[in-house]
Amino acid sequence: MKKPISPAVLLLGAAAAAMAVLPAYAAPEAAASPTQSPAAGDAAAAEWRALEQQAKPQQPPAEIQQKGMESPEGQKWVKEEVERLKGVGEKAREFYSRHPDDPNAKQARLLERMVLEIRARFGDAGAKADLAKREEELLQLPSITKQERFQIRAQQVLRNAKNAGDLETGARELLAEFPGEPQVYQLLLIAAMQSNDPERTRAMVEDIRKSNAPEQVKAQAEGMMKTLDAVGKPFELKFTALDGREVDVQKMKGKVVLIDFWAMWCQPCVAEIPKIREAYKELNGKGFEIVGINLDSDKEPLEKFLKENGMTWPQYFDGKRFETEPARRFGISMIPTMWLVDKKGILRVVNARSDLKGSVEKLLAE
User: Which of the residues 53, 231, 352, 355 has the least number of beta carbons within 10 Å of its own beta carbon?
Assistant: First the structure.
């Protein structure tokens, strides 16, 4: 469950976290407290408006985006952005310390928590310790709402889960703590996707299908059920690849085949490419092949990307993203999704991302 996170993924997480927190803040017009003098209220409101502006995530310059966030320039930019947000977190703490009764004091605490979360993802030991303390303080606030409490607890569950079993346990504890909270099922879905135990996965998926989970989560669960139903059966996939090659997985018997559902716009997918390429280079001569199912919409950039990244294996492409035929047929709703077909043409592994090389070597040895 715990995997190194690339700077690009962290950047997206930082931006998403900031954008998720900011709308929850009280509007500046409502910032002045009736119990404060007008001058004090105006000063605090102005300070808060300035802090809100500083908290908004920055976008990397176009030239850095072109080079990629994994480039030295991209990594440098991300580190600088995290340092900038660290300063925002410190100012947030100063704000609620100076203005404990201000209507925005709680939002300042939430902003500080968000920044500490980002720093903790980068392995900042001090931030991890501070994060735990600040969260406990937040959970004790009389003004904390049920939804805010849930968001904090959900983040704690995600952060503390070392594997799919931990995440399932945490999700079910949240269901007991927040009865009827539909968003808990998103965590249960993630646990199901990470699980290597088909029986546990099926049980989690069934629970989601019968629940009051959001429709999108239920749709993803339905897709997972299609995946589960495909395991242990011959994997049928035949197409003409982007480069004109004819591909028929059933004619690749005797080989172990990775079926990689991916896209260029998916940062976690891109982060997996070096690992996939390394496994292919090492094991291709022993009978390992790869078939890509690409979910992008533009052909030219894809062809350039494949060439630049040394991805020589065939790619399915029709420009329809998640509406592409294999994705619809196999219920793919999240990527990266990496499956392994054994030497008999049977779909055997649907979570190859967790240990690609080890899983391939095991199937090759059969």
Answer: 53
